[in-house]
Structure formats: C-alpha cells, structure tokens
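Subject: Sanity check before I submit

Could someone independently write out the structure tokens for this chain? I want to compare against mine line by line before I put it in a report. The sequence has 154 residues.
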Amino acid sequence: MEQKIKRKYDELKAKHTLPDFNELNHEFEISTIECEEFLLRKIRKKIADKINAMCEFLEDLLSPDNSIANIYEYKAFDDDERKKIFELYKRIKVLEKLALELSVNPDEKNDADFINNFFSSWNKIRIETTGFIKKIKNFWEKESTKEYKARYFG
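---
Independent answer below. Compare away.
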C-alpha cells in the first residue's frame, strides 16, 4: 500500500512542488493512508489531526480546566512564558481554521498550498512546542523529588 501512496504522492509532488515524501511521512505518517484517491486532502487531514492535538495541549497550558494535572502544569510558566505560548497558539489556530476551511471547500491546489505552507513553518512550531513540553516534563521531575504533604481541603 505504501508504494501506491508514494507513487501517487510523487505525481502530485511534481505537479505542486510538495515537500519530500519521506520527510512528510516521518512527521505525519502519510504512508498509513489506505487509498490514494484524494491523497492531498487526506494528508491535510493528518496534519490537521496533529494541529488539533497541539491546540488542545496549548489550551490546557493557557486555561487549565479542573484537572489536577492541568492546574499543576499551569504553574510551570510565568506570565511572559504564557504570552509566548499564546502567540504560538494563535499561529496554530490560524492553521487549524485554514484546514477546516479547506475541509468545507476542498480543492487540490489549495490543499497542496496548505501542505507546503504548513510544512515550511512546521519545524519552528515543533521546536517551540517541544520546549514547552520539556519544561513541563522537567517541572514534574523536579517537583516529584519534593516531599508531598497531603492536605484536607474540605
């Protein structure tokens, strides 16, 4: 199946000057797509899934719900860092809404443009997001070495 997807992608790549198949596959697992029909639309959907997951992650950092983990992770950042998180969040939300718009009005050329534009900004987005993830992971590790004292809040 992967070979059929790769062959179809190579045709579309020549037509739309798309990113390298292996790079895109590494990031978004496009070889797992089962049918090559509407391939660019399906790739956009794979990218949108990752965008949506990132939005949820950033939303939890910016506005934690009543989850203990989200409230705890919120404390890992100061106001300046939250501003940076929000700036990243806004950039990703624009991409999310563009992907949604394209899902309502599918068009091969627009899907190709979306993939190209997203992929060109993906590395910076990934690096910024990874920095926030590492900070949270380190916060959990640092805090887990402190002695926890349970309190009754009732």
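---
OP: Matches mine. For the report I'm noting this point. Residues 39-144 form one domain.
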